[in-house]
Structure formats: C-alpha cells, structure tokens
Specification:
Length: 116
C-alpha cells in the first residue's frame, strides 16, 4: 500500500505542476483552462481508482487523458460561446451607434425645417 500511496502523491504532484506551469506567462484561454483542469482532475481521480486495483500510474495516465479530452471539449465549447457573445455585443454596439447617428440627423433636419 505504501508504494500505491507514493504513486498517488507523485501523480497529484505532476498534475499540480502542470497546472502551475500553465499559469505562467500569458493568461490561459478558456479552452486551455478546461484542458488543464480536466487533466488534473482526471489524473487525480484515475490515480485513486488505479490505486484501488493496484495500478495507480496507469490509472493516472488513463484518467489524465480522458479528463484532458473532456476538459478540452468543454473548454472549447465555452470559448466558442464567449467569442459568439463578443461578436453579438459588437454588433449591438454598432447598431446602437448607428441609431444615435440617425437620431442626431433627424434632430438636425427638424431644426432646419423649423428655421425655414
């Protein structure tokens, strides 16, 4: 059991170091955050399950791959939704600016027609 505990600790340390390494430099995208989080959770869970059957490193590896894939898919979907929201907001702002411009033109036309 001592060997299994050591493997679990090593797997969790590896997952934690991946998360910390990913946090350095430029901010992570939503997709990257999802992938790293999924990998860390998957590796940790896989190590625990693997330890129960006597193969913590294999469990961590399998869990990390499955968790990373799932985290990527979820993060990718969230990032795509964020981009769609940003595009929608930009269109709304553009339309609001156009409405304001037209309102000002109407005001100018009214002022001109009142002075004539």
């Amino acid at each position: 059991m001592r060997k299994g505990l050591t493997a679990i600790i090593a797997s969790l340390a590896l997952a934690a170091s991946l998360v910390i390494a990913g946090c350095s430099g430029d901010p992570l995208s939503t997709r990257e955050k999802g992938t790293l989080g999924g990998t860390a959770i998957g590796a940790g869970g896989g190590a625990l399950i693997g330890a129960a059957v006597g193969h913590p490193l294999a469990g961590a590896a399998i869990g990390g791959v499955l968790g990373g894939g799932t985290g990527y898919a979820i993060g990718n979907g969230m990032q795509n939704q964020e981009h769609a929201n940003q595009q929608t907001n930009a269109q709304v702002q553009s339309q609001q600016q156009e409405i304001e411009n037209q309102r000002q033109q109407i005001q100018q036309l009214r002022s001109q027609s009142e002075t004539e």
